[in-house]
TrEMBL record:
The keyword Transcription applies. It comes from Leptothrix discophora. The lineage of its organism: Bacteria, Pseudomonadati, Pseudomonadota, Betaproteobacteria, Burkholderiales. InterPro entries: AAA+_ATPase (IPR003593), AAA_lid_NorR (IPR058031), GAF (IPR003018), GAF-like_dom_sf (IPR029016), Homeodomain-like_sf (IPR009057), HTH_Fis (IPR002197), P-loop_NTPase (IPR027417), PAS (IPR000014). This is Sigma-54-dependent Fis family transcriptional regulator. It comes from the Bacteria. Residues 353-579 form the Sigma-54 factor interaction domain. Keywords: ATP-binding, DNA-binding, Nucleotide-binding, Transcription, Transcription regulation. CDD domains: AAA, PAS.
Length: 663
């Protein structure tokens, strides 16, 4: 990843002159600032910021928004925290703090020198504040995000004068699939500037990327790379994730740098297009669960580097895996020209949702056709069928993949709040509004995708406002102000029949046509023909490397169950089952299922619990169920409602069970 030197030749004098010129005439002589800094100052001005002014309506996330961002980025945050603590040790007593921000520049976590943290808090260098260039002008976090590069911004290089007491270094953090996840930053008092800080922050970002990679790909095929053999297995190594038929499915920044590859190589290139090796021979020698031996590899230009292939437990055995290559062998096919993110690579997010069901395949195929077109997508389907997951996949597979994906649940907030949340508000626009105002989720989605979940629940007055935004592609914050241009791809979802909502007068017809560029109905789980493959994939994801499976009895019960909660319910059931499995158990039996599901399986299949227990493993389970019922009745002194509650089943079901056993 490139490092941007903003002002290699910057001196206090030159910066002062530049700032004067900038304030007086709004133009800059070329030799005053490094090109990167000049471009960033220009962007800052285009955002309407004045160097000597207070940023207008600088946003600060509400506690709920911060909590949501933390939940959304929990994997990043959990891997970043130990690294941040380590960095904090290195900069102890240096008037500095370590900060983690998300791709929108929202600070997620900060820790460091208490004295400095106080001053930093005064310029809002604290969790919830947003440090994108749009709101704070040139600053290490925002500029690293804008340029996708490691950046130092020192003193008066900051666009806003009130930030000139800071010196900051920031490095982007990228996930194994090449997605920008956030930024790691060290900010301190300008006088405490230390030239090693940039190296420190860059190493910290690499450590986090390494951890993220290991946690995601340990169960699969990983090729470790380093210029020196001793470097293999250290946090400085390059890492590639490979599919069993040789596609590069993941890479860390170090690997991309070692191989001279762009991020777009991930998911679109086979290893043999990068290294001079016989993938088949390499894999044939591999054994699941074993690390390979270091070996010298050659790039296509003949230069050497060291590599080691580690084979995770989920990889099928070597030769047999290779005997069945994927249907398309693209080794001899030229890499398709790429605009933005891959629209049709074999490993993209939409393709990953295809587990073999025809209706899903049709939905994926149709969505793919409009990925790069300004056509609003309307996702319909029962609750829990994966509409949000599908929406995210269209974003990740489309040309806006490296821009924000902003999700708003129209049913989750009261009308007044959702209006502010969506359209933003100016400072003091309404009682309880944050003093600084907020840009609103529509503006946050600028350049990316806006996902409006439960659009069918949007109150009518807001539907009118939304319609205006969609027609004019401009948003006016609550409390007035200048309209701001917005450009986003719209994806909406609803579990209601939107056409029927229109007919009932609860949804505007004109808005219906706007949001319904292409409507796709995702199948309910009971309609899907790929339940087995879905379960298999989910178990692999929940317990990587454990090779879990359903017993024949549970698989049969699952196949006939109605799954009212769809995939959401299935994920929860499997998660519970995994938690109840013993360390050495690999087969999910009825006894590993949550009680209420056993109960529902009984009612939905019309079989009694004892009968199911007999099918499910003999009389043990039946006796156990009988004992549970007796115990619940005893401990609740015969109160049936209380006993049913303790058993986690409905009162009616308990009545029925008692009748069945003649009780
Ligand atoms: N293909 C999938 N593989 C694994 N998990 C999935 C898949 N699709 C959905 N899920 C999981 O199922 C749950 C529900 O998914 P999601 O929120 O996308 O459904 P939804 O249709 O938007 O639901 P609602 O209408 O209630 O908002 C989530 O926990 C999600 O992670």
């Amino acid at each position: 990843m490139p490092t941007m030197s903003l002002t290699p030749r910057s001196s206090a004098d030159r910066l002062r002159t530049a700032r004067r010129q900038w304030l007086d005439s709004g133009v800059l002589s070329d030799d005053l600032l490094a090109p990167g800094l000049q471009a960033s100052w220009q962007r800052s001005r285009q955002h309407g910021l004045l160097p000597d002014g207070r940023a207008p309506g600088t946003p600060h996330a509400s506690a709920a928004q911060l909590a949501r961002a933390l939940a959304h980025r929990r994997t990043l945050v959990s891997h970043a925290k130990p690294v941040m603590a380590f960095l904090n040790e290195q900069i102890r007593d240096s008037d500095s703090i370590v900060v983690l921000a998300d791709p929108q520049g929202m600070l997620l976590h900060a820790l460091g020198d208490l004295g400095f943290a106080d001053r930093a808090a005064r310029v809002a260098l604290r969790p919830g504040a947003i440090w994108s260039e749009q709101w704070r002008g040139t600053n290490a976090i925002g500029t690293a995000l804008a340029d996708g590069a490691t950046v130092v911004v020192h003193g008066a290089e900051h666009y806003l004068e009130r930030n000139a007491f800071l010196t900051c270094a920031a490095a982007p953090i990228v996930d194994p699939a090449g997605q920008l996840l956030g930024v790691l930053d060290i900010s301190g008092d300008r006088r405490a500037h230390h030239r090693h800080t940039l190296g420190l922050v860059r190493s910290g970002a690499r450590m986090i990327e390494h951890q993220l990679f290991e946690s995601r790909h340990a169960a699969g095929l990983q090729l470790r790379l380093h210029a020196q053999v001793e470097g293999l297995g250290t946090v400085t190594e390059g890492l590639l994730a490979l599919s069993e038929d040789g596609w590069i499915t993941g890479a860390n920044t170090a690997a991309l740098e070692l191989l001279g590859l762009p991020r777009s190589a991930i998911g679109t290139l086979r290893l043999e297009r990068v290294l001079d090796l016989d993938m088949a021979a390499l894999l044939a020698a591999a054994r699941p669960g074993l690390n390979g031996a270091p070996r010298e590899l050659r790039r296509l230009d003949g230069s050497a580097l060291w590599g080691r292939l580690d084979v995770g437990r989920t990889v099928r055995a070597g030769p047999s895996a290779l005997a069945a290559p994927r249907a398309v062998d693209i080794a001899a096919t030229p890499v398709p020209p790429r605009r933005g993110a891959p629209v049709s690579s074999p490993m993209d997010a939409l393709a990953a949702l295809d587990r073999g069901d025809g209706a899903m395949q049709a939905a994926i195929e149709r969505a793919r056709r409009v990925l790069d077109k300004p056509i609003a997508l309307l996702l319909q389907g029962e609750s829990g069928v994966g509409k949000e997951v599908f929406a995210r996949a269209t974003h990740r597979s489309g040309p806006r993949a490296d821009r924000p994906f902003v999700a708003v649940n129209c049913a989750a907030l009261p009308e007044t709040l959702i209006e502010a949340e969506l359209f933003g508000y100016r400072a003091g626009a309404y009682t309880g509004a944050s003093r600084d105002g907020a840009p609103g989720r529509i503006r946050e989605a600028h350049g990316g995708t806006l996902f409006l979940d439960e659009i069918g629940d949007m109150p009518l007055p807001m539907q009118a406002r939304l319609l205006r935004v969609l027609q004019e592609r401009q948003v006016v914050p609550l409390g007035g102000g200048k309209p701001v241009d917005v450009d986003f791809r719209l994806v909406c979802a609803t579990h209601r029949k939107l056409r029927a909502e229109v007919e009932a007068g609860r949804f505007r017809e004109d808005l219906y046509y706007r949001v319904n560029g292409l409507a796709l109905t995702l199948p309910s789980l009971r309609e899907r023909g790929d339940l087995d493959a879905l379960v298999e994939a989910m178990l692999r994801e929940l317990e990587p490397g454990r090779e879990l499976a359903l017993s024949a009895d549970v698989a049969a019960a699952f196949a006939t169950y109605r799954w009212p909660g769809n995939i959401r319910q299935l994920v929860n059931v499997l998660r519970t089952a995994c938690a109840l499995l013993g360390e050495h158990e690999h087969r999910i039996e009825r006894s590993h299922l949550p009680e209420d599901l056993i109960d529902e399986l009984v009612s939905s299949t019309g079989t009694s619990l004892p009968a199911l227990a007999v099918e499910g493993g003999g009389s043990d389970l039946r006796q156990q169920a009988e004992r549970c019922i007796t115990e619940a009745l005893r401990s609740s002194a015969g109160n049936l409602s209380e006993a049913a509650r303790r058993l986690g089943i409905s009162r009616n079901t308990l009545y029925r069970k008692l009748r069945e056993r003649g009780g």
